Amino acid sequence: VLGNRSRTSVLPDPQRPELIARIETLGSGTPSSRDLRLYAAISHRRSHRESFTDIPVPTETLADVVAAAGEIPDVDVRLLAADEAVALAQVLAYAAEARRRHPHYQREMFSWTSHWQPRGNAEVVTTWSATLDEHGAAGEAMVTSGIPDVDALAAAIARESVLLFSAPSTSPADLVRVGAAVERCWLAAIDARLSASVVTHPLRVEDAGSRLAEMLDLPVVPLVILRVGF
Q: What is the number of domains present in the chain?
């Protein structure tokens, strides 16, 4: 967008693990209309924390969103099939149950179990106590100790468009690439006048990610969930 061609190297220096990437300019270049649109989408990007409308996303639009990750090597993007919604719902409920009695995680749990709930926060809630936050005062927030009904959650997931992102490993370089692929798809969704939200935490709870991979017969563990919709 600034008028330069570029080349990005992920984790370019083994002696400096804190250096995430190096971007080199390769001379002047004219940005494409797609470059400009995706750049404009950055300022409109928000993580939608509630359910979407029942309007289905057109197949060709979903294909464009998935294709946006194509420039990122070694990242697989998979559209969850409607008949696979039960598996994801079961894993989300499993992860929620594993964290239900851990107050340090309840605030985070609310944010990802509420995604598929009508109006977002129609669950049993309490006032968040700052003393429960292991990383310092959190202030007041809505948290839940309830576990969503699996059948209702599965039905809500089946009505949405859900993408699963995975990579060959969980090495730092692969995690950076997954993040880049998610960002590309997210911006492509915004450019298509969709909303989107990213869900990661439940896949990292105990063996939840491995459970989902086994249930869906995936060769690797999914790392990120991206919901898109109107």
A: 1
pTM above 0.85, yes or no: no
Q: What percent of the chain has pLDDT over 90?
A: 65
Which candidate, 36, 9, 10, 74, places its Cα nearest to that of 187? 36
* Helices (H), ranges, the chain: 33-42, 59-67, 85-99, 103-113, 150-158, 172-191, 208-215
CATH of the domain at 227: 3.40.109.10
Q: Which of 57-71, 122-136, 142-156, 206-220 has the lowest mean pLDDT?
A: 122-136
155 against 49, higher pLDDT: 155
Q: For helices 33-42 and 172-191, what crossing angle results, to 10°? A: 100
| Continuous segment of H or E residues that includes residue 162 | strand 161-166
Q: Which of 42, 32, 82, 35 is nearest to 196 (CA)?
A: 42
Distance CA 94, CA 109 (A): 12
Q: What is the CA radius of gyration of the chain?
A: 19
> Does a structural domain hold residue 163?
yes
The rounded distance, in Å, linking the Cα atoms of 193 and 131 is 40
Domain span including residue 161? 48-230
Q: Per-residue pLDDT for 31 more than 90? A: yes
